[in-house]
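One-letter codes give the sequence; backbone shape is given numerically. An example follows:

. . .
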Amino acid sequence: MKILLTGGTGLIGRHLIARLQALHHDITGGHAQP
């Protein structure tokens, strides 16, 4: 499954990305720095 994730560098996002990658999902994400 292709997933767009925003906030992937935050506390929850880091763990979520690791879990989704383990399940072989295609993840695209980004972050903004003010």
Remarks:
- The chain has one domain: 1-34.
- The chain has one helix and two strands.
